[in-house]
Specification:
The chain is of the alpha/beta class. It is about 55% helix and about 20% strand. Bound molecules: adenosine-5'-triphosphate (ATP) and magnesium ion (MG).
């Protein structure tokens, strides 16, 4: 070991140094507490053990021990033995209790006693250091785990936003397409009209027919552009809520339909339908972004797992007030789950569709959002062939 000794009297210090060296240790020596601390803080190779006298000028042994202990908490553990006179035992015990010293030897002592204490100390020191190393690597793994979890949550958020964009783009495509058709129809009719004018073939009835066409086409353009505008408006709201994650008051029914709008092409494609049963005036003050994510994940799961290989699936979303809470009952009439899946559904990375790109994070995120962010509870009933039903209860006023 590398041992630092602090002792103000020359003869005992020399004896101590020679003894320790004869046992094969490397010794650094100091004549008082301050000198010892400067040495301790200045050396490159860490000191394994400090053997210090108590009563010394400049800085006493207990103060030295306190400082070394504080410094060694940030680096490698240093084992501290205090040399003390019998009369100082009571004070000694206090220092001991405060964890500043590890052991003490009462003066005068003989070499064999010191040797035993040193050996015990060496063993404890290596245990303590090993312990710290384990703690440090545990802490590192834990930090790494937290970072990964945050990244996953973030990427899940982004992924659901991506899904939202795709859904809305798809929905907007229809009214924009219809508007385009109407506009080009209008263009053709104007061209025809010009031709008739040039050939002086324009009759009153032809003009009336033209005006009817213009009416119809402009009506169609107006309606479809209006629809596209609404879609974008709704999407902007959902996207902002998703990204900022702020709390605000919102209508439950209105929000459910915004979410369904962005998912519509997903469920219509498979011939499925979604029925919403929710009073229009039901509002809550909560996190709409989390709300969207929960619903999106539930619907995607019904489509991916419940309605796999099926047509005409039905999803029912019923929401009602219950005292200070809102209860959402989400039901699908799909394949349902066996007991093992039901038990593990919320576990991170549990999926029955690994080969088909399932990550098994959807329900874990749903669980965390409902129980933490939204401050509520979630329960599931399902069995094979009987469909799946979720009961979600969240407070109308979250965070109070
Ligand atoms: N509505 C449902 N009907 C049948 N099984 C379901 C339903 N919802 C969830 N499950 C089961 O629960 C498992 C876990 O769902 P979870 O959403 O966590 O993962 P995943 O959908 O497989 O993957 P992803 O991370 O892509 O969502 C699914 O693999 C599926 O077996
Ligand atoms: Mg899923």
């Amino acid at each position: 070991m590398r041992i630092l000794i602090a002792e103000d009297e020359t003869i005992p210090r020399n004896v101590l140094r020679k003894t320790l060296e004869s046992w094969g240790h490397t010794v650094i020596e100091a004549a008082n507490g301050r000198e010892a601390y400067d040495l301790y803080a200045g050396v490159q190779t860490p000191v394994d053990m400090l053997v210090t006298d108590w009563m010394m000028p400049e800085m006493d042994g207990l103060e030295l021990a306190r400082r070394v202990r504080r410094a060694s908490n940030e680096t490698l553990y240093t084992y501290i033995i205090l040399l003390t006179a019998k009369s100082d035992i009571d004070d000694m015990v206090r220092g001991f209790r405060e964890g500043e010293v590890d052991d003490y030897v009462v003066k005068p002592f003989d070499a064999s006693e010191l040797e035993v204490r040193l050996q015990v100390g060496e063993r404890l020191l290596s245990l303590e250091r090993r312990q710290r190393e384990i703690n440090r690597s545990l802490q590192e793994s834990l930090d790494e785990l937290h970072r990964t979890q945050q990244k996953l949550v973030q990427s899940e958020k982004m992924a659901s936003l991506g899904g939202l964009v795709a859904g809305v783009a798809h929905e907007i495509n229809t009214p924009v397409g219809l508007g385009l058709t109407a506009a080009s129809f209008l263009g053709r009719k104007v061209h025809d009209l010009r031709g008739m004018l040039q050939e002086e073939a324009l009759t009153r009835s032809k003009l009336e027919a033209f005006l009817d066409n213009v009416d119809e086409a402009s009506q169609s353009i107006l309606t479809n552009l209006g629809r596209a505008g609404e879609l974008i408006q709704g999407f902007k709201k959902v996207a902002v809520d998703q990204t900022t994650g702020e709390k605000r008051a919102f209508g439950v029914a209105e929000y459910i339909s915004e979410v369904l709008l962005s998912l519509r092409h997903e469920y219509r494609r498979g011939g499925h339908e979604v029925v919403v049963d929710c009073p229009d005036d039901l509002t809550i003050e909560s996190y709409p972004g989390a709300f969207v994510q929960v619903l999106t994940n539930l619907v995607m799961n019904s489509l991916m797992h419940g309605f796999e290989d099926r047509e005409n699936g039905q999803i029912t979303i019923a929401a009602r007030e219950d005292g200070d809470d809102v209860v959402v009952e989400y039901t699908d009439n799909g394949a349902g789950m066996d007991a093992k899946t039901l038990d593990n559904m919320y576990e991170p990375f549990f999926t029955t569709k690994r080969a088909r790109g399932g990550t098994g994070l959807g329900m874990q995120i749903v669980f965390n959002l409902v129980t933490q962010k939204l401050g509520g509870e979630i329960r599931c009933e399902s069995s094979p062939g009987e469909g799946t039903r979720f009961f979600i209860t969240v407070p109308k006023l979250v965070g109070k």
